[in-house]
UniProtKB/TrEMBL annotation:
Database matches in PANTHER family: LONG-CHAIN-ALCOHOL OXIDASE
Record-given protein name: GMC family oxidoreductase
UniProt domain Glucose-methanol-choline oxidoreductase C-terminal: residue ranges: 427-551
Taxonomic classification: Bacteria, Bacillati, Bacillota, Bacilli, Bacillales
Record keywords: FAD, Flavoprotein, Oxidoreductase
Domain Glucose-methanol-choline oxidoreductase N-terminal: 215-329
Coiled coil: none
Top-level taxon of origin: Bacteria
Pfam families tied to this protein: GMC_oxred_C, GMC_oxred_N
Keyword check for Oxidoreductase: yes
Protein family (similarity comment): Belongs to the GMC oxidoreductase family.
Length: 579
């Protein structure tokens, strides 16, 4: 029988960026918050010996354990889904800080076009895609979200410079851009020659020491090249562990419980009243009552927990009805690799967000009138630190082993550059999540089943943007250029990005969305679901900046809800709000 804990104001399920933001903002406002995290606690001190490529890059030392927690996958609804036995295409984090520990730190604002993609596209171009594409407006505008973007950037101390084609800003970045390098300068010069508008990538690897508004100090980046898949031993990569979690702890109103796996959201009378969780070591069950429950876990886990708890109507791909699991989106990766015979570059140096970008082909920044796809993607060159085990890029036709492979690897390790794009992902009715009818997890609960494949929209966007990347690489002077290709079907391996989105999407009404623009569930007024699970589609950027902005807005909504002692949802097809 489960042990019942004392009731608190708020309980969060997961303690990464979103859980940390909710905890910091609510405890500063005087509320008591319990944060439940299934993994272990971690701090900067735990990363002192982290420059172990094999342990953390290859063996995914900071990621979820697929032997205990995984998904099943298939390309289409007619296939049998099979469990993912090891992490591949994406790498969800585990432990305090979540993926915010091992991220690169590339911190963007989605474009105004993203939040009103359906209405803006239809107004300018008419119906460009078929009814099988389920893209929609988000129920919020960029202008409404702009202050929250800046609040996240202030908390994280983001380093950057003005993006000529980006979302308009009312304030500059809290810290200056990172250093430029010969690699980035080559890209900037080439894109300027092509009439494009390059700028330094916005970065959570800070260009200088910084104290944020909550009094937390973030150190200056050392450019060691161990960001992605690693924690930062200098405390120079802004993460929940050096920002929002310490802020919550110092209030004295935040209790962190690690090794606590939430298996159910408890709902009574249309309201979430708490959660049931398991101590992963002892197996003992607990009930944590709360006035407000906030799901702040990874995209896939947020969706699964709602389905497992029978909250909200599951999405049905045949009828289009239901919302939980709907609009799963990923990203596509157009690009071009360049091999240089004479030029050498210090590619072993870098940082997770050390890069230069152009946004001339992102969103609707270019005319789509004669194109048979919508949206686009940011185009960047990054210098993240090329490591010897994971980076063995050679021209096509090189043998995959033996003397010729070794010779080409040694030759091109520091003579290869990549210009790449994060292409937007537009939702399709056959790309979704539900519960697997066959496979279960360690606790006997159904696995989340992911059904996903590339679409014609994906292929057309990929081809167009890859052509642009090839032209940029040519202008940079590469001797051999290889344009990125796209497989016939999406595969769960190898790694691509961790930028999964959707499943608990936001919008202006309960028929087409799961949460309102405070990320409050239409079907459970005391339940908020915070994270990239709210994205109605995936844009041409890394999602974390937009996730952070939405988390700060959700924190405002939770405070309003708690202070008003109620707050029925206004179920309107105009902008949703709390009353």
């Amino acid at each position: 029988m489960a042990t019942k804990k004392d009731k608190v104001d708020v309980v969060t399920v997961g303690v990464g960026w979103t859980g940390g933001i909710i905890a910091a903002e609510l405890t500063k406002a005087g509320f008591n918050v319990v944060g439940l995290e299934r993994g272990e606690d971690r701090s900067t001190e735990d990363f002192q010996m982290i420059h172990d490529e094999y342990r953390y890059d290859i063996r995914h030392g900071l990621m979820q354990d697929a032997s205990r927690e995984t998904i099943s996958f298939r390309n289409n609804p007619d296939e049998l889904a099979l469990p993912m036995r090891q992490l591949g295409s994406f790498l969800p984090g585990s432990g305090v800080g979540g993926a915010g520990v091992h991220w690169n730190g590339q911190t963007w604002r989605f474009l105004p076009y993203d939040f009103q993609i359906k209405s803006m596209t239809d107004e300018k171009y008419g119906q460009k895609l078929g009814d099988e594409y389920t893209y929609q407006d988000w129920g919020i505008t960029y202008d409404e979200l702009e202050p929250y973007f800046y609040k996240f950037e202030q908390t994280a101390g983001i380093s950057g410079e003005e993006n000529p084609k980006g979302a308009p800003r009312k304030n500059g970045y809290p810290t200056p851009p990172m250093k430029s390098t010969p690699i980035l300068n080559l890209f900037k010069e080439a894109t300027k020659n092509m009439g494009l508008n390059p700028f330094q990538m916005p970065s959570a690897n800070l260009s200088e020491n910084y104290e944020n508004p909550d009094g937390q100090t973030i150190a200056q980046c050392q450019y060691c090249g161990f960001c992605e898949r690693f924690g930062c031993e200098y405390g120079a990569k802004s993460s929940p562990n050096v920002t929002v979690i310490p802020t919550a702890k110092k209030t004295g109103k935040f209790e962190l419980r690690t090794h606590s796996e939430v298996v159910e959201v408890i709902q009574e009378g249309g309201k979430a009243t708490g959660v049931r969780y398991v101590d992963v070591y002892s197996g003992e069950e607990f009930i944590q009552p709360a006035d407000v429950v906030v799901l702040t876990s990874y995209v896939l886990n947020n969706t699964r927990l709602l389905l497992q708890s029978n909250i909200g109507q599951p999405y049905n791909h045949k009828t289009g009805e239901g919302v939980i699991g709907k609009n799963y989106c990923y990203q596509i990766l157009p690009g071009a690799a360049g091999f240089f015979e004479e030029k050498k570059f210090n590619t072993f140096m870098g940082a997770g967000s050390l890069g230069a970008s152009v946004d001339d082909y992102n969103g609707d920044n270019f005319d789509h009138s004669d194109l048979d796809f919508i949206h686009g993607g940011s185009i960047s060159i990054t210098q993240t630190g090329r490591r010897p085990i994971g980076s063995n890029v050679t021209p096509s036709g090189t043998p995959s082993w033996g003397p010729e492979f070794k010779k080409a690897t040694l030759k091109y390790h520091n003579r290869t550059l990549n210009v790449g794009s994060q292409g937007a992902s537009i939702p399709h009715r056959n790309n979704y999540m539900d519960l697997d009818p066959t496979y279960t997890d360690f606790y006997g609960n159904p696995l989340l089943r992911l059904t996903y494949d590339f679409t014609e929209q994906d292929r057309k966007l990929h081809k167009h943007i890859s052509g642009v990347c090839k032209d940029i690489m040519s202008e940079m002077g590469a001797d051999i250029i290889e344009e990125a290709s796209m497989d016939e079907h999406y595969d769960i391996v190898p790694y691509q990005t961790t930028h999964n989105t959707g499943g608990v999407i936001m919008g202006g009404d309960s028929e087409t969305s799961a949460v309102n623009n405070y990320l409050q569930m239409w079907d459970s007024e005391s339940l908020f679901v915070v994270g990239a699970s709210a994205f109605a589609h995936n844009g041409g950027y890394n999602p974390t900046g937009t996730v952070g902005a939405l988390a700060y807005r959700a924190a405002d909504g939770i405070q309003k809800y708690l202070k008003q002692g109620g707050g029925a949802l206004v179920k309107s097809k105009s902008k949703s709000s709390l009353t």
